[in-house]
Amino acid sequence: MKQDMATAMSEEQIIDNVRLCFQNLITLQGEHKNVLEGLETTLTAVKDDGGNHVIEEKAKYVRSGITLLDTGVQDAQFLVELKKYLDTLEADKVKLKAQVRRLFQENAWLRDELGTTQQKLQASEQNVVQLETEKQQLEFMNQLKKYDTGESGDQPTPSDSGKGASDTASELGFPDDEDNANMLSSAQAGQMAASTNAGYEIPARLRTLHNLVIQYAQAGRYEVAVPLCKQALEDLEKTSGRNHPDVATMLNILALVYRDQNKYKEAAVLLNDALQIRKNTLGPEHPAVAATLNNLAVLYGKRGRYKEAEPLCKEALEIREKVLGKDHPDVAKQLNNLALLCQNQSKFDEVEKYYRRALQIYESKFGPDHTEVTKTKNHLASAFLKQGKYKEAEVLYKEILTRAHDREMGASTPDRPIWQVAEDQGDKGRSRDSPNLPHSDLATWSKVSKTDRPPP
Question: Is the pTM of this model over 0.70?
């Protein structure tokens, strides 16, 4: 150790002496140049005399000394630069050693991470197997739901839970696709997939993701659905830019998940962003813009903000009338949503007007026995009840019951409607031995005449 320090000190002394020598050589070089200039001046002055030979000899020796001094200066300068270079090499050597140590540490860390990742991969593979099983079960349940007669209603509601039958007209960015609706429970089907993007289909590259998110949301696995949506949204923004229709669609899907978690504020922010993007990219009168406006209206309605929701719903109605025509079924759905918003504000004149117009559209498009006709009549009858118009409500309810029974079982009593037979049976205690309407028929009639009840 002491020998190394002594060696280091001698090296420092050597380089210091070299620097000192270098400075002295520079000084001596300058002095020789001054002497040479003086001799050359003297030689010029005594040029014609005989003593210039001695001066020339002196000048010759001075020039030779200057040459040697130049060589010494160059050598000393080389040694100084060599020392700097060696110091740089030593510093780089220290840095390389530090990098080698760091690489060894990172290598050890990566080995640990690799082991952890392999364990996670095995766990993920097990989860994939489980998810495949769950997927098969969901597909089986979806097939069964096609035959479910207890489907929910088609109107938005201010209910905080967002799970009731009256929520099923809530539109959050999904097309009117029966397959999508069948993925969900009967109380959620309309919430997540009902008639939202008429005229605008979800792109193929997002359709699988959309279906997967719905399945996770249905299972209540929001910790998977939300990161999945956010990652897809981030990828879309990187590849397509923020101002792209697919980004707006992804925002709608994420808003759906937030809405299903009752995170209405976050959902509203996303829907507003989606609305602005769709207006910029698709134009202010595109059906997708109308769908987003209706989504916001439904969302505000759920939070009880009916005055803010109504103009959005009206704007969506205007767009759909202009693009699809005033007698399109989607216009009727929009009218139903608007009627319910007005009903929650006690604007019953407008409620009746919107319901009657929706009813007219449905009857002209689908006929008097269609499910949408029955639902709209039921909502209109409920509005009559709220106004105390019991006779008008009674007429509609009796008409619903009669058509439902006749559609399923045929007119068993041509001279008496089914509602009157039911009243007679009620007066008789609904006897099983009734000759006009057997007990089994009453049960079947009760089932087939069931329709969605509007929210209170």
Answer: no
